[in-house]
């Protein structure tokens, strides 16, 4: 095996790639997840027709879908690698044959999602035990040949963008499985069962190089918090929440002293808000002083007026006492006279 595949398969669970990174990379490239086998957060299918007790899909099968050229057509790359060739039209690809189609233009079509168990080789058909153990990928390829035969294929057999997209599919499948998958050629899987020769003129070294590039591109991704949340199966944070976090984590300037002043506890800040300002306190004290003066003046007036009132009462009492004494004296005098 080539070096990149050898290093990956030496320790399949050591992905070194996250779902969030894959999703972010797809978004940057403008690739919809519906075109690459379904959501990257979904699991892949189980074997035995997606039996939960059966193992997850383990093998990454590579095919080619042969389209025989019409009379007068040949392998001219300016024809077969352009939209002029009918094989590059996604709408013309047969349904129910594979999981993913990849055209020479590097475009993909999801025929069946990675979560759907599907059989596409003779090896899988005798028993449902193998249905779901393999993920299938058809590389669209033109063919030629005499009569009904189509054993002639172009060399190189596939375009650089086809290898790039096949490498990306391998990364996606591995991340969804949680471990790197074992690559398999269709012709090798069906040896002794059927007459298959695909994928013809497949350059394993070119695919290995494309795989190295795809891994480096995905691993370089630093996804946004919203992408991470969705990939982890959580609710995506709102823009307001992200802005709030950014304000909280914004670095402070001005040293520790300024930071301590700014970072005033909420209780203290609330108490400070309740305390009156300097102006209001001065106004209150002046008002108190004025009221105190008024009260003192009123008291002083009362105290000055009080003696006058008491002296009048005293005079009246004294007059009454004097009148009584005089009356008593008069009575005594009258008694003595009688």
Protein described:
It is built from twelve helices and five strands. The chain has 338 residues and is of the alpha/beta class. Helix 2 (19-29) crosses helix 8 (225-231) and helix 5 (160-177) packs across helix 7. The longest helix is centred in the last third of the chain and has 60 residues, at 278-337.
Tell me which oligomeric state these chains represent: single chain
Shape: elongated
Please trace the helix and strand order, writing H or E for each element.
HHHEHEEEHEHHHHHHH
Strand order of the largest sheet: 3-2-4-1-5
Instruction: Please mark out the parts with pLDDT under 50 across 5 or more consecutive residues, or reply none.
Output: 235-246, 249-264, 302-309, 331-338
Radius of gyration: 49 Å
Give a quick account of the main beta sheet: strands, pairing sense, barrel closure. Answer: 5 strands, mixed
Extended strand count: 5
End-to-end separation in angstroms reads: 164 Å
Please indicate the percent range of residues in DSSP E strands (runs of 2 or more).
5-15%
Number of helices: 12
Structural class designation: alpha/beta
Mean pLDDT: 81
Helix content: 40-55%
């Amino acid at each position: 095996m080539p070096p990149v595949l050898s290093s990956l398969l030496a320790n399949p669970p050591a992905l070194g790639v996250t779902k969030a990174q894959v999703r972010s990379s797809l978004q940057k490239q403008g690739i919809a997840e519906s075109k690459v086998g379904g959501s990257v957060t979904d699991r892949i299918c189980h074997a035995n027709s997606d039996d939960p007790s059966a193992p997850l899909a383990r093998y990454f099968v590579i095919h080619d879908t042969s389209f025989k050229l019409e009379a007068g057509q040949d392998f001219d790359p300016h024809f077969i690698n352009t939209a002029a060739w009918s094989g590059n039209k996604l709408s013309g690809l047969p349904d129910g044959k594979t999981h993913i189609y990849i055209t020479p233009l590097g475009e993909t079509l999801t025929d069946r999602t990675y979560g759907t168990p599907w059989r596409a080789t003779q090896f899988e058909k005798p028993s449902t035990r193998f249905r779901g153990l393999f993920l299938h990928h058809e590389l669209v390829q033109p063919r030629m040949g005499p009569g009904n035969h189509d054993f002639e294929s172009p060399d190189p057999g596939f375009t650089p963008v086809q290898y790039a997209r096949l490498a990306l599919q391998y990364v996606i499948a591995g991340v969804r499985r949680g471990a790197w998958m074992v690559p398999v050629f269709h012709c090798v899987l069906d040896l002794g069962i059927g007459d298959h020769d695909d994928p013809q003129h497949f350059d394993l070294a070119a695919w290995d190089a494309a795989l190295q590039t795809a891994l480096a591109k995905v691993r370089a991704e630093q996804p946004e918090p919203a992408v991470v949340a969705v990939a982890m199966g959580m609710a995506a944070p709102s823009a307001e929440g992200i802005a709030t976090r950014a304000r909280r984590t914004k670095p402070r300037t001005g040293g520790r002293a300024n930071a301590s002043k700014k970072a005033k506890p909420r209780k203290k800040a609330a108490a400070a808000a309740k305390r009156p300002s300097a102006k209001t306190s001065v106004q209150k004290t002046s008002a108190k002083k004025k009221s105190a003066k008024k009260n003192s003046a009123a008291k002083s007036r009362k105290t000055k007026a009080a003696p006058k009132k008491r002296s009048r009462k005293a005079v009246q009492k004294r007059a009454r006492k004097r009148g009584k004494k005089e009356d008593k004296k008069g009575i005594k005098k009258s008694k003595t006279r009688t």
